[in-house]
Amino acid sequence: MERARVLVVDDKENILKLFARILGDGYELTTAADGGRAISLVATQPFDVVVTDLQMPHADGFEVLRAVKARAPETEVVMMTAYATVQDAVEAMKQGAYDYLQKPFDPDDASLVVARALERKRLKEQAAALRQEVGGVHAFHNLVGRSDRMREVYRLLEQASGLDITVLLQGETGTGKELAARAVHYHSARKERRFVPVNCGALPAELVESELFGHARGSFTGAAGMKRGLFEEAEGGTIFLDEIGDLPLPMQVKLNRALQEKEIRRVGDTAAIRTNVRVIAATHRDLKAEVAAGRFREDLFYRLNVFPVVLPPLRERREDVPLLAGHFLEKHAGVLGRRLTGFEADALRALTGYPWPGNVRELENAVERAVAVGTGTTVALRDLPADVKGTQEGSLPPEVLARMPYREAVDLARDRVTRDYLVALLRELEGNVTRAAERAGLARESLHRLLKRYGVRSDDFKAR
Predict the structure, then answer these.
(1) Residues whose CB is less than 8 angstroms from the CB of residue 5 and which lie 6 or more positions away in sequence, other chains included
(2) Residue 239 and residue 230: Cα distance in Å, rounded?
(3) How far apart are CA 274 and CA 272, in angstroms?
(4) For residue range 81-117, what is the model confidence (pLDDT) as tens digits?
(5) Could you confirm whether domain 4-134 is CATH 3.40.50.2300?
(6) pLDDT tens digits, one per residue of 173-204
(7) What CATH number should be reported for the domain whose range is 148-311?
(8) For the domain 318-461, what is the CATH code?
(9) To 10 degrees, what angle do helices 433-440 and 444-453 make?
(10) How much is the pTM?
(11) What b/e sequence results for 201-231 when a residue is b if at least 16 CB atoms lie within 10 Å of its CB, and e otherwise?
């Protein structure tokens, strides 16, 4: 596997030797003794992370930062500074630097900052890849997924779009049935006309007929004038009958006749009105079972079931979770004005391991919440809902693990072991961070950084 490339810039030889010792084994390390040399290297070679001192001859750290961001904006920059120039380092962060190290610093701190800078770069690359995928072959009119199940759904929906026939969408609540219906309509020859969605389960039984077919003036108490129904509103376009399984039996008879004859009658009127409307129906119920139980008419079922499409639940296509999560992250970060680069590894593992009983809708709500409550540049485990966070202790399903790149799978395993270690350590020492740092062989500040990164709070383990 290709090693990450790090450039360290400092006019002090002891600093360059320190980084050679702490980064030499796991990284491809390049050093420069002044800012001018660093700018020359950046102009000709790619680097993942640049660690640079602020005050140097020939060119200072600000000039190095500007050169890096002009040549390779995705490269992360870490500033090194003495106490007196901390304000300059903060200003550098405002100009695009990732973090800073205050001299003298603990080698563990330096190693951790470089590792986190690399992780941030990787997350930004993942986010860019997700944006590219969402805009490419892994999306179909706002439906997102690259699993085999979703590819088959895309194929069927595209086929249905070219056929002016009735479509029946089946799937659990939250699987995106209305999105699928809109995809069919807006890829069809009727796309210039209206798409009219109707939730049959939300209509009062006594008003269903009037809402769908309209009513004549005086046809019932309160009918002060003539009203066009939703079928007329959708003339030439598509009417989407969501939760068709909730339609009362008497209305099922009238709907079946309307579909058969391609005409409707307003309530209280004897004149028939010809209709040219495409029907797309959807339900979370098993309509065959409903027919067998006498709750749904068999003739209407067969009239609707011309072109059936089943949308799979999210738990059966977990490999789509990272792609969907990235899509929703970009969507809601834009709405809320947040600049987020992706998900931390343990957060992504929790999202992928959760069964999502509410399907895609629940996932979007979870990501929207994380964007709203989070304070970092990435979504952390602590930002997720409690139910989702609980899955981080579990292992990923084998079918999900097998589809990951080796490096990503190893990173997830490492993160899980690290968090488990921190929890066990603090539980054993009742939340005493000083003793925990001594036991772990880390500087106290380094342990604090790890605890913050993995969302572990020492107060949770202190004796009450």
Answers:
(1) 27, 28, 30, 45, 46, 47, 48, 49
(2) 8
(3) 7
(4) 886 567 777 788 888 888 888 888 888 888 888 988 8
(5) yes
(6) 999 999 999 999 999 999 999 999 999 988 88
(7) 3.40.50.300
(8) 1.10.8.60
(9) 100
(10) 0.58
(11) eebeeeebbbbbbbbbeebeeebeeebebbb
